[in-house]
Specification:
disordered N terminus, mainly beta, 6 helices, 5-stranded mixed β-sheet, single chain, Methylamine Dehydrogenase, Chain H, 34% strand, 4-stranded antiparallel β-sheet
């Protein structure tokens, strides 16, 4: 055997024969090799046949139409005999009917005329609304920023639609507040989502607003009187700059605060209005509108010492003449020339716009002032704060009673309400509503025997400690005490103003020193007039006079 050794490794082994070159490159076909997949077989072993098709659903068709129908008649059958009987019943003997009507004609007309002249149902109106037995507080309105300044509600007014109430903020408890910022706020009570502490409109005013009044026919116009003596007219539809008219500070402007403002019709210009202002400087001024938005003095009056008793409190002018401070005014509802004023001296005065007597020889105003007072009534024990003329009257007045046209109410710091006739100086009735200041009195617009008064308890002139109430008086129930006294607010806060709503007659607004306006819903007792209530008022005045 041959061995071939590896010289480098030192190993030896058998020598293998070397193949030929042709044999190394010969073509061959090798058998195929198969490798079985273990993963696929394991996976398929675990798989199950699945199907997403639901099983067969059984269905059936059903008809909703009824298989049979039947018509039924509701008309009853009428027999021929019944038709004949009915025709016999409606036959009329017109000759006999005419004869009967001619015989009773005079008697029927006589009774109709008698009923037509009867006053049994005077003032009676059918009320289709629900009956309310209690007085409820519907809203308590306020402006928090004004309350933070301790401002008081000095006046309230309803617009012509009866849905919007406005209030003025200022101060009535003395002091120099002419430079203190104040506000005029309005709320629409018919608005959805009414927020009692977020007024619909807030007007910033540089001086305390002492009084305001909505226009009698334009619901967006408000007139206000300021502590500075100015008059301003705002248009609530203008949110950017609502001031449209003002008097400015001129020689004609009041020198004292304006405590009442009224809208008057302009006799010369039907489309224009005039404004009347009342101040404790003793002047009653009437203003007309100018094209440039200025309010110019048209005419004026002054209540002077010569027209009132000597006991009245007077204001001295620089030239030695004296005027009486005017605090309130109310026009007659039936004679536009007649009005009543309340003065600081405690008197109520009957006045006339037709007066021609000069008041002051040197007034400093652009027009001469006249003296309007014609009659002074028996005084209160203190200043008169409010007067209110009756809105009810009779067509024919009786001289001995003065009729209902000439009645008015007054109130003051003595806590009394006086019922007066304009034809006599002594009050027909004096009502003592306890020991309270009375700041405002208003006659009901729907009940001739009902009025409201605003009060507050007063202990001294320097410290105003008050408990405010709203008193509702009904002469039909009592002529000596209120039918109802409503507590306006907790704490010692007087009620300064009240106003009936002439459109929504169940609503009464009252403003107090706490800066809140409460809207009261009156019960039916205070809003529904009885059939003979007008007669009761006239009889009351007649009995007292006699």
């Amino acid at each position: 055997a041959r061995f071939h050794g590896n010289q480098r490794s030192g190993r030896w082994g058998p020598v293998r024969p070397r193949p030929s070159l042709a044999a190394m490159f010969a073509d061959r076909t090798a058998d195929g090799a198969a490798v079985e997949s273990l993963w696929r077989s394991a996976r398929s072993a675990r798989c199950e046949a699945k199907s997403c098709q639901t099983g067969k659903i059984s269905t059936a068709e059903t008809a909703v139409q009824s298989h049979s129908s039947r018509d039924a008649g509701v008309q009853t059958d009428q027999s021929k005999d019944a038709v004949q009987d009915f025709q016999q019943e409606v036959q009329v003997d017109y000759t006999s009917l005419l004869s009967f009507l001619q015989r009773v004609e005079d008697a029927v007309i006589k009774e109709l005329n008698k009923n037509w002249k009867s006053r049994a149902f005077d003032g009676f109106e059918v009320n289709w609304t629900d009956q309310n037995e209690t007085v409820l507080c519907l809203h308590t309105l306020s402006y928090p920023e004004a309350q933070d300044q301790n401002l008081q509600v000095t006046s309230v007014s309803w617009n012509v639609t009866g849905s919007v109430v406005a209030c003025s903020y200022g101060r009535l408890d003395g002091g120099d507040w002419s430079t203190e910022k104040s506000y005029v706020c309005t709320w629409n009570l018919d608005r959805r989502g009414l927020n009692p502490q977020r007024p619909d409109l807030v007007v910033d005013v540089p001086s305390s607003v002492m009084c305001l009044a909505f226009h009698p026919s334009q619901p967006s116009l408000i007139a206000g009187g300021l502590f500075s003596g100015e008059l301003v007219v705002w248009d609530t539809s203008r949110t950017e700059d609502p001031v449209i008219r003002r008097t400015g500070m001129t020689d004609d402007t009041h020198t004292d605060p304006v405590y009442q403002v009224n809208w008057l019709p302009d006799a010369k210009h039907r489309n224009h209005d005039r404004l009347l202002s009342v101040s404790t400087d003793g002047k009653i001024l009437v203003w007309r509108e100018e094209r440039d938005g200025r309010l110019a003095l048209a005419e004026g009056f002054a209540v002077v010492a010569q027209q009132v008793p000597r006991s009245a409190q007077l204001k001295k002018f620089g030239w030695g003449e004296a005027a009486v401070g005017v605090t309130s005014l109310s026009f007659s509802h039936f004679d536009p020339r007649v009005f009543v004023v309340g003065v600081e001296g405690g008197y109520s005065l009957k006045c006339s716009t037709a007066a021609e007597t000069p008041a002051l020889h040197r007034t400093g105003t652009s027009v001469p002032l006249r003296a309007p007072a014609e009659l002074a009534f028996s005084p209160h024990g203190g200043p008169v704060y409010s007067v209110s003329c009756s809105p009810f009257h009779r067509q024919v007045l009786r001289v001995n009673t003065g009729g209902c046209t000439n009645l008015f109410l007054s109130c003051g710091t003595d806590g009394q309400v006086h019922l007066h006739s304009m034809l006599q100086t002594q009050p027909l009735l004096s009502l003592q509503l306890s020991k309270k200041y009375l700041f405002c009195v208003r006659w009901s617009p729907v009940r001739p025997l009902v009025f409201a008064a605003a009060s507050g308890e007063g202990n001294c002139n320097k410290c105003f400690c008050f408990t405010g109430d709203v008193h509702l008086f009904d002469f039909e129930k009592s002529s000596q005490k209120p039918a109802l006294s409503i507590k306006q607010a907790a704490g010692e806060h007087p009620v300064y103003c009240v106003e009936f709503n002439t459109k929504q007659t169940r609503l009464l607004a009252a403003g107090d020193a706490a800066g809140a306006v409460r809207v009261w819903q009156l019960s039916s007792d205070f809003t529904e007039q009885g059939p003979r209530e007008m007669n009761h008022l006239e009889q009351l005045a007649g009995e007292i006079t006699d």
